[in-house]
Design a protein that fits this description.
The chain is built from eight helices and 18 strands. It is an alpha+beta fold. Strands 3, 4, 5, 12, 13, 14, 15, 16, 17 and 18 form a ten-stranded antiparallel beta sheet that branches. The protein has a four-stranded antiparallel beta sheet with strand order 6-7-10-11, with no helix packed on it. A two-stranded antiparallel ribbon has the order 1-2. The longest helix is centred in the last third of the chain and has 29 residues. The radius of gyration is 28 Å and the shape is globular. 20% of the residues are buried.
Length: 408
């Protein structure tokens, strides 16, 4: 009689089994397919956050129903956590549980490469920062601006200058805010906090009409706009007021990401006083500092004849840190330095006809796992190559052995 397995053995067998791996891979493939379909209407950023962000423990997937203009809502686990279970499964089954010998060396190496690749996605999800840097020819900068993430900054002002550190409330403090929510954001070391209400993912600042009522702030109010699928085009905004140390609250004011046509410049940033100190409060897209200066010397766009369709973008820059180093950045050839990668994102097309200065836009990415996918592919290819050569060697040896004639 076979000995019955203990609960711990059954759990171990399940977590490290091929069945779980197959199920997770199929589920991940289905989620990727559904996310691709949904991305057409919802946009890339919203879809990625819905299906694959680490805060999404579950997903209400929209499954299209053929021949009907309807969608079936199907709950499923979040893609980030599907990948986390896949990482656990492959570590237990493909590294620990697998029989280890010279015959399985290539398979073990290939499994390690796949684990390395999945881990790279998790690291990027948690620690990646992504922004843009726009420069006209001759300009220089040492920071990028986030495409999507707003931050609230509180700066202490003394004699017209900013003193001390800038206190920031970023994505962790603002995550999940909705139109009907009220949240108090606290700033350690400051005599003020901020109470936020009426959060809008996309809004414009407009002059208050007669029907604005209590929503009018110094003749201005917020008008909610449809959320754009392209997340970088949204301008978050909300109403705020200061909460002092004794619990009292100041007059409400508007916080919004500045937009050229919003009229926001008329009253931003907001100045408040507490304990004899003056503070400026503003909402901006998150600033990503770069540990060196980048100066654009020449932006060189090349277009297909008689069209505005880009053939190639090339930027000649100078990287200024310990010394000035000339660098060229162009499509599929980024600059990597100090943990930051500069990709050629966009370039002006009009100034070359009008004689004005060209500008160039770089996508700036800080990702500790930037090169991990490339390395993992090399590891997987090495493991599969070793396994293939071993199988080929075994086949050649088996075919050269003399065969014993069969007895009639």
């Amino acid at each position: 009689m076979s000995k019955s397995k203990t609960p711990s053995q059954l759990i171990w067998k399940f977590l490290s089994g091929m069945g779980l791996a197959t199920f997770l891979l199929v589920l991940l493939g289905i989620q990727t397919w559904l996310a691709t379909l949904e991305m057409v209407d919802a946009g890339l950023l919203a879809t990625l956050q819905k299906y694959f962000h680490w805060t999404s423990w579950y997903v209400l997937a929209q499954v299209p129903v053929p021949y009907f203009d309807r969608h079936l809502v199907v709950p499923m686990p979040g893609g980030y956590w599907v990948c986390a279970f896949l990482l656990l499964n492959m570590t237990l089954g493909g590294i620990i549980r697998i029989r280890k010998s010279w015959k399985t060396a290539g398979v073990v190496v290939a499994h390690f490469g796949i684990i390395f690749m999945v881990a790279a996605g998790g690291v990027a999800q948690l620690f990646e920062e992504r922004g843009v840097m726009f420069l006209f020819e001759g300009e220089k900068s040492d920071y990028a601006v986030s495409l999507t993430d707003p931050t609230i900054e509180v700066l202490e002002i003394k004699e017209g200058k900013v003193v001390g550190e800038v206190h920031v409330a970023g994505e962790p403090e603002l995550r999940g805010l909705g139109r009907g929510d009220s949240r108090t954001v606290r700033f350690a070391g400051l005599p003020i906090d901020l109470e936020l209400t009426g959060w809008m993912r996309n809004a414009s600042v407009v002059e208050a009409g007669p029907d604005a009522g209590n929503a009018a702030i110094d003749g201005w109010t917020l008008r909610e706009l449809p959320v754009r699928p392209e997340g970088e085009l949204n301008a978050p905004a909300c109403y705020a007021r200061v909460v002092y140390g004794d619990g009292s609250k100041g007059s409400p004011f508007i916080l919004a990401v500045p937009q050229p046509t919003s009229g926001l410049e008329a009253f931003a940033p907001v100045t408040v006083e507490a304990d004899g100190r003056k503070f400026a409060v503003r909402m901006v897209k998150q600033t990503i500092p770069v540990p060196y200066v980048v100066q654009l010397d020449d932006a060189i766009p090349v277009y297909f004849p008689n069209s505005t369709r880009p053939k190639s973008f090339r930027s000649k820059i100078r990287r200024i840190d310990e010394e000035e180093v000339p660098v060229e950045i162009f499509m599929n050839e980024p600059m990597r330095r100090g943990g930051y990668t500069f990709f050629q994102r966009t370039m002006s097309s009009g100034p070359q006809q009008t004689g004005g200065p060209e500008f160039s836009g770089f996508e700036v990415v800080s990702n500790p796992a930037d090169q991990w996918p490339k390395w993992s592919l090399w590891v997987v290819a090495t493991g599969m190559g070793v396994h293939f050569l071993m199988k080929l060697f075994q086949f050649i040896l088996g075919s050269t052995k003399p065969r014993t004639p069969s007895t009639p």
